[in-house]
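Blinded run. Sample ID left blank on purpose so nobody reads anything into the name before looking at the predicted structure. Input follows.
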Amino acid sequence: MSEFSEISARVKQLRELIEYHSNAYYNADSPEIEDDEYDALMRELRELEQKHPELMDADSPTVKVGGAASGKFASVEHEVAMQSLRDVFSMEEVEQFCADFPNAAFVVEKKIDGLSVSLEYTNGVLTRGSTRGDGRVGEDITENLMTISTIPHRIKTRAAFLEVRGEVYMPRKTFAALNESQEENGLKTFKNPRNAAAGSLRQKDAAITASRGLDIFVFNVQQARGLEFDTHAQSLEYLRECGFPVSPEFAVASGFEEVAAAIDAIGNQRGTLEYDIDGAVVKVNSLKLRQSAGVTTKFPKWAVAFKYPPEQKETVLRDIEVTVGRTGVLTPTGIFDPVLLAGTSVGRASLHNQDYITQKDIRIGDRVVLRKAGEIIPEVVSVAVHGGGEPYFLPENCPSCGEKVFRLEDEAALRCVNPDCPAQLLRNIIHFASRDAMDIEGMGPAVIEQLIGNGTIKSPADIYGLSEEDISSLERMGKKSAQNLMAAIERSKGNDLYKLIYALGIRHIGEAASRLLADRFGSMEALMNSTSEEFASIEGFGDIMAESVRDFFSTHHARELVERLRACGVNMNRLGGEGGRLPSSNRLEGMTFVITGTLEGMTRDEAKALIIANGGKASGSVSKKTSYLLAGENPGSKLTKAEELGVRVISLDELNEMIK
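Blinded prediction complete.
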């Protein structure tokens, strides 16, 4: 094969690799490689195309913006293209960029690692929000964006129409809590905050988005009819006055030396920020100069993104600690000599599973290379030097109960399947009593650990048989604390069905899925006697979730637990908005409803359950088949769609009248 043929084949291979990983990152929200590995592939492709322009292609990833509209939402064509940025990896490249604009001022900003969105305001009212997509066509996610508390729904502005661009992100603490919850419930964890934010923002159910604690920084004015600005910094200050959270601590710099100092200052903050960044952005400040500089098909010529190299440190693996999670999964954690990494001391990191350990050949005593994936999660990159230890294998027996562990089909993890395993019991009851589940205030891990330790409780149902004396005899639990906890236990009996479903800890079933089950079936009895096909027919449910619910309720252990809870007086039915039983009838039979906006005195989930209980169908999108649009405050784009199609719009009061 000739040298040119080899280069041509490599270009083709690089394009396929980049397209694959771009789709995993932008569209599937599930990256398989780190940012620096992706950047290296893109750099190699760009260099080969520059050396061999005859191999250039209009569909090459070097000239296309990553991402595309998924089809889950209505598409939005951007009037002003939402372009990407040209990446640079050295100060020499930054210096050359600054030299291209002699005597110009620059704005240096943190490059927030999130999902880029557009917000459109007509006469000061938020009328539409959308994703970037491929830069030209994105997705309408107005309702989801409206759940982010820092996005203003109304602003005071002289502009008849204002479009701004921002980056939606997930704070680091929120990300850590979300992954912990996902892991506890046997759900897939997110690789980094950026992908958690993207996955949360592109949910069909806005209630899930609302629960994820997302935030935003706004960093650009895309359009402003009736307003003019001379500089980018001036436009950012205006956006701040309007009430937007703008690009944090941006700096105006004159010349390369000041730009370099600002980039270094941001780099030094990386480990201390409450959010992830994946670089620093350098932009020409003058809007007039920007216009004369122009743009390429992919990025503007007046801005670059400096990418910081990932920080890596060597340390020694001293031990591997194996713990048993609530779902029985054995998780190995490496214990290292502590090292300072991305601003914090790191002494522990998950080793995930046996496949991960075997693939990297990690052994106790090894000198290993650590880094923080996405600047937040410590991970072992590789083994630098073996320390003489033997290859490591996870135990064949559960470290908590001693029973044999199993590797189930299609799983990388080893799992203890003993329902009476003490480690699982502790975590199960902690989950059962947690705020999002049965919400038993005062029953924290320390109390539960003591109650399990002295043999008082061996099942979640035993909580409802506790006496005041059982609690007051515990450490740091006096009479008053015992009375308060007994009252919280009694209150929990009246919780809605969805909280009980979530509390049972069914694998792959989180809070949102629990609500869907409660909405669909209305009672624990109906739920327990349904089939996997009926579960799978719920919008938002997949086969794995459906089989998991079926498998759970097919066990004697689960049915016995439910019956014991029922006998203790725990509510087994879906409740209405006022805390009473849902009224049921067939008065809405044959009618399809779509719900939008904020309803007074009732959540949208509760309204959906009310519709279903009375024979109606609740849909997520407006179409010609929609019978009624149930609208509350701030209804969003669904109201416009309903009016265009002639769908009747009703209030919650009118819905209640229809049922009566």
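Unblinding after everyone has recorded impressions. Residues 84 and 131 are 13 Å apart (CA to CA).
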